User: What shape does this take?
Amino acid sequence: MIYDKKKFSEEGLFIDVKYDFTNYGGRWYFGAKTYSFPPREHNLKGTMRTLDRADGEVELEYGLMDKSGRTFFDDSKSFVFDEENMPSKRKHEEIDVYYLAYGRDYFACLRDFYKLSGAVPLLPRYALGNWWSRYWKYSEESYIELLTEFEKRNIPFSVAVMDMDWHIVDVPMESGGGWTGYTWNNDLFPNPERFLSWLHEHNYHVTLNVHPASGIRNFEKMYKDMAEYLGINPDSKKTIEFDMTNKEFVEAYFKFVHHPHENAGVDFWWIDWQQGNNGGASGIDPLWMLNYFHFKDMEKRGRRGLILSRYGGLGSHRYPIGFSGDTIVTWKSLEFQPYFTATASNVGYTWWSHDIGGHMNGYKDNELALRWYQFGVFSPINRLHSSSNPFCGKEPWNYPEPYCSDMEKILRFRHALIPYMYTLNYRCHCEHIPVIIPMYYYYPFEEKAYSYKNQYFLGSEMLVCPVTTKIDEDSQKSGEECFIPAGIWTDIFTGDVYNGGKNGKSQILCRNLQSIPVLGRAGAIIPLASECGSNDIINPKKVDVVICPGASNTFVMYEDSGDGFDYEKGEYALTEFVLDWNEDKAKISIDVSGDLSVIPRNRKYRFILRGFARGIRFENADNAKYDIKTNTWTVTCNCDGASELEIFADNEENNPVYNGENVNDKIYDFLLQAQMDNNDKRSIYRLFTSGENKNVIISNIMSMKLNDKVTAAIIEYLLR
Assistant: This one.
């Protein structure tokens, strides 16, 4: 950095960087007007406040990550906190600029940004299950009836969301309308305490939607007490104006409006602020203040902070979770959301919650709804939501088979994922690693990692490629072109093994309705809860550990009480899973340490060895079964917290990895379902059973001039 010790200027303050990733050179000038720095076409973008009314792609704000290797942001106009910890405008003009130069070490950039601005908080465990939400005029009876139906079908939910109709909404416009409200509608909920108790007895956590802009009006239950507290004559019926810059209002807002609801059983709040960023005389965005005060108030009351709100700008990661807004129900909207979700990590905002299934308008499409469910399960927060249109409900039984069963199955899988997701939650908080990771964080010098925008890592172990296109009628599969990085990758659903070689490769991955491509890296270790039909999200008594072949690896599962701050006093347990991989054998070991009181005694473990060859044998196994359709061994052993399972190759190749030994059976199953010419099917099957090498088979397949998706599906069986 070169500085002439005078007033900051373009000539007197500039910075050179060592690495030059672009044609623009490596020098930055303070306040340069001649060109934008960094070059905007190299910026990897961040996120935005809301997707309200979005139908597909929208323009995102700029992020902290840049392919040029350096970027900056100007924080000079943001508010500060005064001596009483209240938001305040800066007292005089300041220059507050941050220059980031990390080359393409995006993890380091984000880690230091978190250190600078504050870490992402540790979310309570219940936030990581399924959420039920709908803008609908429920009653106590109809809401309980709905949730009881979910329970009968063994579909788990951990959060019950009440949209705005929980409160009084029939308010004349001359009195401000019905969006803002804090008093239960007793016509619909005659006994709110009874209703909330039922929800908690059935292991739901509860959030209520609020639109605070219109203040506290005279018809609200708490109006009299709050008015007197603030020195307002209740008989005047004067509205208590919303003002989060007024310390007395903030105190009364929580004391009289929110705490009584929380004491009755409300766990956290959905802050639905739609009035823009106009802070009136204060000039401070009210959304920022709402997010901050609500989050901190929960912490003061001994709970981990949690809100559902809108993104307020850089630094909002300190107050999760984000609510992305009311999207249109279309394929275009779904196609944009994976990219939107992953890219938000570039500003540290890793906890997005979308209206899974889309919110409003659009059209009914059974396949679209299922694909949105599948993406939601592999996104940070899985919150089903829709508008009050009676034809937009996301209940699985609104869809015919096989969509209904597939939706129910994938929702159960989300709750199975909670042990893994909770560990990612802890890593994000303590190690500053985002939950959703763009491809280029791991492969910063691989251009294809930037090109396939809808791929992302869910934590360290899984590469997710959501399906955002319709099934092809001939092949009965959807095909997504993906980038498979170097090394071995295993689909955690199908058990198929892919080899990215030394440099990685592009390949179309084809899937039927039941799954999307989710690839475990070589040696991936993914702990799951093995029984997932109830709403209970406690640390499980039985754990399934999915293991993918190909490399040594260690995964440490984190567990604590799920809420509160006892973990800061050491009340947590760590379960270390170690895969020691060699060419002809492998060993899996388990070691549990820490406070064992937070996990069940005599926990049982089961290993799901996905993508392994049939010809292997085990030592220390009680029982082992092989599923040839998913290339999977399911192995149980007597684990006491410090046990080992040894795996030995027992086949001609002397390799534990699945090698395509049953590919003819798989291509037969595919052709049996494909809607295409029967003679072509026979010709294709004869090629596979001919004994010819892969190149000859591929050449013949290409010459047949089949449907592109059919060709891609067939080639995929040969190029794994």
In short: The CA atoms of residues 22 and 86 lie 43 Å apart. The two ends are 50 Å apart (CA to CA). The mean pLDDT is 93. The first strand starts at residue 2 and ends at 3.
